Amino acid sequence: MKIFTLFTLLFLNVVALYATTPDISEIKQQPLKVVIAEAEKLYAEAVYEDAYYYYKALSEMKKKLSQEESYRLGKTALAAKDYETAQRSLKPLLLKKKYYPLIQYEYAFALKYTGQYVLALQHFQSYLNANQNQWENDYVKLAQTHLKSCQKALKEKERTSSWFLEELKDEKAEEGTIYRALTQPSKYKIGLIECQTINGTCLKKIYADNTIEDLKGSVGNPIFNAVSPFIAQDGETVYFAQQEMGATEYSIFSGKMTPTGEIEAIKKLGPSVNRIGYSSKHPTIGLTDKGQEILYFSSTLPGSQGGYDIWYAVRTTDGNFTMAYNLGTRVNGQGDEITPFYYQNDGELYFSSEKPAGYGGLDVYKMTGEKKRWEEGQAQHLENPVNSTGNDFHFKKTARGKGSFSTDRDGKKEKTVKYKKTIGA
What we know:
5-stranded antiparallel beta sheet; 4-stranded antiparallel beta sheet; 21 strands; globular; 11 helices
């Protein structure tokens, strides 16, 4: 089976963070035959994420799904990251391995991503035992990786609550508001944070006491969807991503912070970073020994292995950036790699990825070095309490043992937390 088909199923883009989804209630208003036909069409085309919503609607429209429909609902639920539905649909079919040879692997996958590591271990091991002579099988290789990550997770004690310094809150914020991508303070002692609301996303100012204030201009207007701010090492240059009017793709911009925390002199980076038809976001800056700026960012540029990959470009003496280069397979995989952050003091690049070695969802990884010169042979997975079975991303390190990140662990609403103590980061 081709590797791209494998990852089409398991490592699609992070739906909850970056995409809109079909409305099941609208699908259910269509005739049953139409829903069945569309579900079968999408499944045949391996568009599993969209097919899931049709099979999910079908499960609510019919008294009972057929065996094949139940399997397809479970399989597509994995792509949509609805792991509870995947478990319910696949469990009754575990004895049907003759018809569904991947079902034990898929069921184990769903168990792992809901934190049921003991059961996941048992089913991954059973899958490996049944396929012990197929070591070149991509699923066998992945099952071995998942098995090790489950064993690792079980050895670690959950100590999350004792590590968190505080959760960022804004008592004045409207219900449903999510804050993420907290920056370090500027030289004016004012930081920036991304604010997601029902009306869109914008940037806001944040002070040392966690007071949050609105920004003026397009960056403070939710209709322009400004995201992922970063304050450079000079303490006043700001990078962020934003959608231009009428566009669905993101482009990276730079600007200057004023003493009052406003962002002025905003300009769009050139076509080496921003290309029509592709998204570029999550900018962060690292400096070489000679002080030359390296821009790391997430992008869907041609050559990306998954959805979003981590890329870099170098600022030249004329102030522009060179063409962008993909960071390669030690960093990027078949899923999404997003929210890079470069910690200058220790020369470390942090980013979040859907790699199979993780505990579930997006996990945070680290590499030491710059550009394509990394000390490690592969990205290093951070342990608890940073990573969990949920999505863990926008990791920012401000000092040894201090920083922040965003998480939606334990099935709860996404939040940004600050941490303290040494956690291998």
